[in-house]
Design brief:
single chain, alpha+beta, Ribosomal Protein S5, domain 2, Pdz3 Domain, 2 domains, six-stranded mixed sheet, six-stranded antiparallel sheet, 10 helices, 20 strands, globular
């Protein structure tokens, strides 16, 4: 009996199913991403922002200026609301911190209001920086204000429900204040838990007097906080020079110190930088003290990114700044304008500066 070999051929193989499962998985993930991507979580991601060379932002028409061989940079942070995927990504980035939305944009506050207030704060910072620089150089300057204007009240603070946006504070614990700087200076001299008296007028012009207990600042350990954002009401400066600064629509007051140093450098023969690349951040006050800022870690990363050799930071932010410095940049703690000038005075001029002298 002869058997046909065809009867013993193996049945045709079925195509593997795993490509179908992979394709289905990819489709499901794609749909999930499309659905979830627009959904924001209640956090902002804070990351290193643009860096600006300050002397290019400053002009002083009609005056002789002395450009530096080196550079001074102001530092910024980028803030964006995040979705769940960006929230996860931020946890794996050393350069990014997540900040609760309520801290950046309290309930009832629009993003447009936050942007407007930050730009107003920058404008006031520029005015203060120019005032301090010219005063330091011996020019006759003056200013006046009608008090500290309340721009925002922090919902979790003891001021919430007591003070309101539009109030003008004219006295803190019996000490008359004309500017936001003066009000903040009195508060800084007190301790957490102290009850202070706030006098002023409300938006309708009615006088008020409130006793408010100072709470802890959420970002600066051991620092008391009234719980309000302040600006100077009716600020008027009397300045002998026309100093113009282009803010590039950067918001907030943290470039104040670097503006001051740059104006001093431009109006002074010689070179404050010694030819070096100096970055920095910190507010400047009328009393020439340097105030703390937010996002110092991100700003140090930004300074490293442009190859700065040194970064000047407020003393209150120094420890946080060190966590981002690595071995690439030297962090310098400053409490006053004089501290910054003293440090710059220790820098050994580079050869090109000596050759130009």
């Amino acid at each position: 009996m002869t058997l046909d070999p065809a009867h013993f051929e193996a049945p045709p193989k079925r195509p593997p199913r795993w490509p179908l499962f992979v394709a289905a998985f990819v489709v499901v993930v794609g749909i999930a991403v499309l659905l979830l991507w627009p959904v924001k979580v209640p956090y902002y991601a804070m990351s290193p922002g643009p860096v600006e060379e300050v002397s290019g932002l400053v002009s002083i028409p009609g005056e002789t200026t002395y450009p530096s061989e080196g550079d001074m940079y102001l530092l910024t942070v980028g803030l964006r609301e995040v979705n769940v995927f960006e929230w996860v990504e931020a946890h794996f980035s050393d350069e990014t911190d997540l900040i609760a939305r309520e801290t950046i944009r309290p309930s009832g506050t629009t993003q447009e209001e936050i942007t407007r207030r930050n730009l107003e704060s920058m404008n006031e910072s520029i005015d203060t920086a120019v005032y301090v620089a010219l005063q330091r150089l011996g020019y006759e300057v003056g200013f006046s204000g009608s008090g500290a204007l309340v721009l925002q009240v922090v919902e979790e603070s003891n001021s919430f429900g007591v003070l309101e946006v539009g109030d003008v504070i004219t006295s803190v614990d019996g000490i008359t204040v004309q500017t936001a700087d003066e009000a903040a200076a009195v508060i800084r001299e007190r301790a957490i838990g102290d009850v202070i008296t706030i006098d002023g007028t409300d938006p309708d012009g009615e006088a008020f007097s409130h006793d408010i207990e100072l709470g802890p600042h959420p970002d600066l350990e051991g620092t008391p906080m009234l719980g309000v954002a302040l600006d100077t009401a009716d600020l008027e400066l009397v300045l002998p020079l026309d100093v113009r600064i282009d803010s590039r629509n950067i918001g907030g007051p943290s470039a104040g110190m670097m503006y001051t140093l740059t104006v001093i450098d431009l109006l002074t023969p010689g070179d404050l930088t010694g030819g070096h690349r100096i970055a920095g951040t910190g507010t400047i006050r009328f009393d020439q003290s340097v105030g703390p800022i937010g996002g110092v870690r991100q700003k140090v990363y930004a300074a490293r990114g442009i190859g700065a050799e040194y970064v000047l930071v407020p003393a209150d932010n120094y420890e946080d700044a060190l966590t981002a410095s690595g071995d690439e940049i030297e962090v310098v703690s400053v409490s006053t304008l004089q501290d910054a000038l003293d440090f710059l005075g220790t820098l050994e001029p580079l050869p090109e500066v000596l050759a130009a002298a």
